[in-house]
Write a structure and sequence with these properties.
171 residues, alpha+beta
Length: 171
């Protein structure tokens, strides 16, 4: 009985010692490793921005736009009018009227708000949010994935059509 308890004591002390050494090794490795730099110079109006065709939804209504130049987009829309009717199709060329960034507490650009309009008849506000995820990709290398989330608001005030929504989203 005494031999068994002594053996258990030795095994537990060895396990604790090995766990402590493993923890110290991983923390030392993390101290040496640096987080990779993520480019913070992103702007939707630049030609280098990858997404030029984006689709936004609101219930049964679908809106998409193509970026033609840095300040011009073509807005395409299908507005649902009932199950037995054909959807109302919209196609408008809009010009950039307002552009600004929102920053987080560290000073990094997190959101860009763009406003496009056409003679105050059609006003389209696009909100682009930058999202990042940093994770361990194996072999003690940190990897950062960056993607953009899109949302928006649309107001159309024409003689033939009056439409307004504030919850356009991507799916």
């Amino acid at each position: 009985m005494k031999n068994l308890s002594a053996l258990c004591l030795i095994i537990t002390s060895l396990l604790l010692w090995s766990c402590e050494n493993k923890v110290e090794k991983t923390t030392d490795a993390k101290k040496v490793q640096k987080t990779p730099e993520v480019n913070d110079n992103w702007d939707f109006t630049n030609r280098e921005f990858e997404d030029s065709h984006i689709r936004l939804l609101n219930k049964f209504d679908v809106f998409s736009f193509d970026k033609i130049s840095d300040s011009t987009i073509i807005l395409h829309g299908n507005i649902f009018q009932g199950w037995k009717r054909k959807a109302l199709e919209i196609k408008d060329t809009l010009q950039l009227t307002e552009k600004h960034f929102s920053q987080d507490s560290l000073g990094k650009k997190r959101q860009q708000i763009l406003t496009y309009s056409k003679r105050d008849q059609t006003i389209f506000q696009l909100i682009i949010t930058k999202k990042e995820l940093t994770y361990d990709s194996g072999n003690r290398k940190l990897k950062t994935d960056v993607w953009f989330d899109y949302s928006g608001k649309l107001s159309i005030n024409k003689k033939q059509l009056k439409y307004s929504t504030s919850d356009l989203y991507t799916k």
